[in-house]
Structure to design on (453 residues):
């Protein structure tokens, strides 16, 4: 390690957007000599990339900061401590007030300013907070060159949200919807593929609201996500495309049809519905009914019968009655999910639902969550078991935890492992599945030949 090398530790909370942002912060800091380490213990710079979505997520940040303060003291004050992400955006002032050990606070659109902020801290200038909302500047200023970690990568194409679901902080922490332009996305995708990436997961809080501009020669303004995906599919060496997270309101026909006509688009869709009752969907300001959601899924399955569908659910939204919750259970039965996340409603100050009457008691939320999760676990296990006996193309992402096994992902995004003594990382191989649990499927190598998609 040469003298100029500094150690960087980033801890990431929350969604894939934060995972992507953490990667990009590493890219911004690499030219300054920062190399990532596995623990905060001896780091020169520690960044907590935070999530504000539920109360628990936010509280974690403050307790983590308390521990880091002690590490900082041990380092004789040498360690720089920064908070980034959605808590930084929403509670920047509060963080600085509650934890003076924090040297810098940066909102999600300000990461390109990290080097400048670090310089300011070193000059002891008293400007520790940067929560501007200039998202275009962020993407323009981030380096094109990305460090890659394995054959699968995230690529942000859209940020922010204008939907204002009544429970959600994202429109306040990430700001208004913004789509990157097509050229910038293609350039980043090509750079990733050049470095060995074979699967790209297009990201956005509202990714299917994508409406980025393209050069006039290529069809001009306001491309849809479907059009962008078909365009990216032309990149040689890119074999798999995914996108997340989508909103039912923006599932247009063109995007639905892409699952039928674009082989590289994987048969997997994360489409959160949150609740199965129309009254609750309305109170949440989701802008669609349960029936519309079912229609979308039916249409997708007509086009691609093996489509794996996943979702997010909130139980105990204010005013949720027993019969509303039963509608959620019925919807889950009807859709039959491959996997899903489910949460108890968490009251977020500043969002409309926080002030709604008839908040649901904690024990009712607990009971509903348990029932919902039991059903979802059953469906997920069944979905994994349904792969037994099938031979699936698996993108190998690295060694599995068990010695002598490799790990990867099926087209349905299932974690999978198979016996193999050779390091096949980065290859797409055929694996015949012979075992399944709640969280993974296991199999044996059928052939190393790249399958015709
Ligand atoms: N853009 C995505 C979701 C982003 S947040 C969408 O529109 O669905 C990820 C998930 O966190 C949400 O889908 C929701 O299920 C959950 N969530 C958001 N706010 C919440 C809150 N106040 N309480 C509990 N769960 C919440
Ligand atoms: Fe939040 Fe709704 Fe926007 Fe999703 S669509 S990020 S849940 S406001
Ligand atoms: Fe959390 Fe911000 Fe993502 S609040 S879920 S990290 S957009």
């Amino acid at each position: 390690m040469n003298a100029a090398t500094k150690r960087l530790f980033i801890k990431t909370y929350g969604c894939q957007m934060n995972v992507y942002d953490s990667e990009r912060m590493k890219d911004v800091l690499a030219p300054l000599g920062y190399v990532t380490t596995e623990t905060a213990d001896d780091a020169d710079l520690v960044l907590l990339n935070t999530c504000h979505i539920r109360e628990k997520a936010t509280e974690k940040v403050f307790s983590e900061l308390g521990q880091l303060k002690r590490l900082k003291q041990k380092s004789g004050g040498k360690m720089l401590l920064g908070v980034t992400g959605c808590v930084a955006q929403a509670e920047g002032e509060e963080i600085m007030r509650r934890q003076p050990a924090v040297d810098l606070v940066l909102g999600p659109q300000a990461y390109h300013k990290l080097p400048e902020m670090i310089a300011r801290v070193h000059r002891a200038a008293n400007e520790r907070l940067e929560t501007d909302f200039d998202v275009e500047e962020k993407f323009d200023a981030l380096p094109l060159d990305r460090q890659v970690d394995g054959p699968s990568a995230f690529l942000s194409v859209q940020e922010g949200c204008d939907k204002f679901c009544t429970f959600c902080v994202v429109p306040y922490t990430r700001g208004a919807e913004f789509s990157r332009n097509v050229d910038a996305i293609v350039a980043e995708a090509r750079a990733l593929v050049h470095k060995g990436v074979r699967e790209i997961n297009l990201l956005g809080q509202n990714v299917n609201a994508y409406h980025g501009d393209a050069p006039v020669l290529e069809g001009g303004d306001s491309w849809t996500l479907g059009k962008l995906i078909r365009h990216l599919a032309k990149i040689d060496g890119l074999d798999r495309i995914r996108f997340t997270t989508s909103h039912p309101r923006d599932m247009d026909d063109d995007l639905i049809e892409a699952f039928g006509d674009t082989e590289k688009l994987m048969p997997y869709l994360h489409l959160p519905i949150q609740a199965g009752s129309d009254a609750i969907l309305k109170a949440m300001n989701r802008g669609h009914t349960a029936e519309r959601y079912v229609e979308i899924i039916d249409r997708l399955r007509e086009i691609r019968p093996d489509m794996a569908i996943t979702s997010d659910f909130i139980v105990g939204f204010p005013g949720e009655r027993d019969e509303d919750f039963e509608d959620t259970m019925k919807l889950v039965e009807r859709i039959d999910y491959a996997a899903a996340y489910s949460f108890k409603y968490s009251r977020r100050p500043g969002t409309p639902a926080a002030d709604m009457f008839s908040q649901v008691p904690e024990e009712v939320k607990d009971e509903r969550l348990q029932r919902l999760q039991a059903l979802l676990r059953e469906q997920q296990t069944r979905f994994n078991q349904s792969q037994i006996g099938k031979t699936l193309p698996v993108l190998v992402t690295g060694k599995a935890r068990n010695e002598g096994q490799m790990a990867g992902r099926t087209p349905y995004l299932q974690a999978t492992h198979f016996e193999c003594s050779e390091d096949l990382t980065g290859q797409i191989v055929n694996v015949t599945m012979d075992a399944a649990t709640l969280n993974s499927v296991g199999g044996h190598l059928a052939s190393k030949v790249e399958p015709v998609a």
Remarks:
- The CA atoms of residues 6 and 13 lie 23 Å apart.
- The pocket of FE3-S4 cluster (ligand 3) is lined by residues 14-15, 17-18, 51-53, 85-86, 169-170, 173-174, 205 (CB under 6 Å).
